[in-house]
Design brief:
Elements (H helix, E strand, L loop, with lengths): L3 E7 L6 H11 L6 E7 L5 H9 L3 E4 L7 H15 L3 E4 L6 H10 L3 E6 L1 E2 L5 H10 L5 E4 L2 H8 L5 E3 L6 H4 L3 H10 L6 E6 L8 H14 L3 E6 L5 H10 L6 E5 L4 H7 L2 E4 L4 E2 L2 H8 L3 E5 L12 E4 L4 H13 L7 H6 L4 H18 L2
Parallel strand pairs: 1-2, 1-4, 2-3, 4-5, 5-7, 7-8, 9-10, 9-12, 10-11, 12-14, 14-15
Antiparallel strand pairs: 6-13
Helix pairs in contact: 3-4, 4-5, 8-11, 9-13
Length: about 375
């Protein structure tokens, strides 16, 4: 049997949610049946690139659109014409239109338009890009209901591919918690954690403001920020201004984030916009109390340990964090997560079947 030749398109490779979703799925698919490629056109973290290469992906780096749109399109088209892919799978939401159009021109039979982001107030150009992308789409994917509405306006013919995870890997383990807290020199502090790209969208600056208020009520707190991005230096500068260097740790990108959840007490995600954040599935699987902005879709409210708050006032978050500290019990919610369709072992088989069905339909 011939291998299925597939190319994925991402904005960048920096351990973000989209990259994690692709890695999760292809870690659990029989890769001997696939010839795997990925095209990246943004910031690329070496650790993340290595993860993809270790799974057998050939990584293509092209010029960023903001540097030269013409070069970007020319380089992508060249790759598509030379490689002759069976499936093109785009993961950039609004800008999926560009590789989809080039894939159509290059004769790629299956062209998947995948939405990973829920955007409440899109600009005119973004709306135009979304509409145009449908002209070159053969199949529509979304991580959830709100992300589907962003790109496709409705749920018609949309396949929901959930941001599934390895449930056993993220299940709470008290021994790992103790070991990780020793490694990070954490004693009896209340530990908050945030995992995501260091960008305006993820709103980590808001967390620093929260910590600045929180330490006035309780000095025995710590914030772990895990991620990589263009705002890293600005965030560190703000931490220095508030004299919070001993309270806030930047841990960069890591290969053991499941252990970060174990050693933490509260997961915080004050994002300005999201699709269906994988980190919220991971945190709840770990039994970790989770506080997210009300910009996050209610589709991730799988367990009673998640709470939605507005990002208009830091004091609301400070009060919630202090209240949670007084009433904390770690429970196992793995079965609830599985029942809601987030078991990667089941969902990866489903994606494998979907790819094959799509190709059969296009023969």
């Amino acid at each position: 049997m011939n291998k299925i030749k597939i190319v994925h398109f991402v904005n960048g490779m920096n351990n973000g949610g989209v990259e994690a979703v692709i890695l999760n799925y292809f870690s659990n698919i029989d890769r001997s049946n696939y010839d795997l490629h990925i095209v990246t056109q943004g910031d690329n973290d070496d650790k993340c690139v290595r993860k993809f290469k270790n799974l057998g992906f050939k990584v293509h780096v092209v010029t960023r659109k903001k540097e030269s749109l013409i070069k970007n399109l020319r380089e992508i088209y060249k790759i598509l014409k030379e490689e002759k892919f069976d499936i093109l799978h785009t993961h950039m939401t609004v800008t999926n239109v560009f590789p989809l159009m080039l894939g159509w021109l290059a004769g790629v039979k299956v062209r998947i338009n995948h939405s990973h982001l829920a955007i409440k107030d899109m600009g005119i150009m973004d709306k135009i890009y979304c509409k145009l992308s449908l002209l070159f789409t053969t199949h529509k994917f979304a991580c959830g209901r709100e992300a589907a509405k962003t790109l496709f306006k409705n749920m018609e013919d949309v396949i929901i591919l959930k941001n599934a995870i390895d449930l056993e890997k993220f299940q709470y383990n008290d021994e790992i918690r103790k070991e990780m807290r020793r490694e990070l020199n954490i004693n009896n502090e209340l530990v908050l954690c945030n995992i995501g790209r260091l960008t305006a969208q993820k709103n980590q600056m808001f967390l620093i403001e929260i910590m600045n208020q929180l330490v006035k009520h309780d000095q025995n707190v710590k914030l772990l920020i895990i991620g990589f991005g263009e705002l890293e230096q600005q965030l560190k500068q703000k931490v220095a201004e508030y004299n919070l260097a001993d309270k806030i740790s930047f841990l960069g990108t890591r290969d053991d984030i499941e252990k970060i959840y174990q050693c933490s007490d509260i997961f915080v995600l004050p994002s300005l916009k999201e699709g269906l954040p994988l980190v919220c599935i991971e945190s709840q699987t770990s039994g970790l109390k989770t506080i997210v902005s009300d910009n996050v879709t209610d589709e991730v409210e799988i367990t009673p340990i998640i709470k939605y708050l507005p990002i208009t006032d830091t004091e609301i978050w400070v009060k919630e964090i202090l209240d949670l500290k007084e009433d904390y019990e770690r429970k196992d919610y793995k079965e609830e997560i599985r029942k809601n369709g987030y078991d990667i072992k089941l969902e990866a088989k489903r994606l494998d079947d979907l790819y094959r069905k799509m190709l059969e339909e296009k023969k």
